[in-house]
Amino acid sequence: MSTLAQAQSRAGHRVMVAPTLSNPGEGAGFLASLSKTGVEVIPLAVSGRGYLREGSLIRKLVAQKHVSVVHTHGYRSDLIGGHAGHRSRVPIVTTVHGFTGGGIKNRTFEALQRLAFRHFDAVVVVSKPQADLLVASSVPKSRIHLIPNALSGHPAPLDPAAARAALGLPAGGLIAGWVGRVSKEKGIDVFIDALSSIGDRVIGAAIFGDGPERASQQARAESIAPGRFQWLGNVADASRFYAAFDLFVMSSHAEGLPMVLLEAMAARIPIVATAVGGIPDLLSPNESMLVPPGDAKALAAAIRATVDDPDAASARAQAAQLRQRAEYDVAPWSARYEALYRHLLGARVKAGARK
Asked: What span, in angstroms and rounded, lies between the C-alpha atoms of 355 and 71?
């Protein structure tokens, strides 16, 4: 959202971001990313369950600031912001990055979210499987728009030696990188099983991220392969350090179109990933090695093949970098959103003229 807001601002549009903040210090990193960007930030201070107040504040903001389009992100924003935008009679847009399932509470929120999408003027998805899911959930097909993610500029990357030194990783040896939320849908257990099964090659692992599965999976990894997995937690500007990896592994059971894969493509790191969500549209066999989800043996074989043939791996990584630069850059991505906004506003004008 920060990237889109900044891109639209650079294009000359007035952009306001209204994050819901329920606790002191919440969203500090996000707010910092928008400082000195030309984007107007209007925090909405509400309690965790202050849904009515939140809706009221959004409607007031739309009226006072003469907002033309409301664009929401995330299930709370979709449910409350979308309703507020609808009541304010302005076009409402959302971007869907994926559904994770999980516990009954999260599944309930995601079901309500999909119901709400039926009343949006536009629902942007980042992958074709997401579009198919929403059509199956009775979201009108004419309102679904496919706009894959794009990668904005990042801080200058470190070279391999500097990246490993900064992370406290060994200067020598092979290291597989894994980046993401340590939760069930990300398949960290499959990655642990795959890497641990490769007994005749010493391949270490550097894991960036945190989440509900970390404690149990960290203990499990240590019991299976002591000292082989380095758990580094959340790493600021993580993509700066990707040069520390000999290969990048994604073992997810479900994904939209992962930003971390775009980052790995840009960093020219050989990629092994599961063929889920929008990943097969993002990466072909020419640019990566793709395996079925939940298959530790297939993942291990792909990891082995990558480290055993570094020339072929390097060629795939170079092809992936070229594809990222050609197809997943911010300028054309932002232009597609602008075209969508203009289309919705034009449709409103035409609808009003017919009345």
From this structure: 26
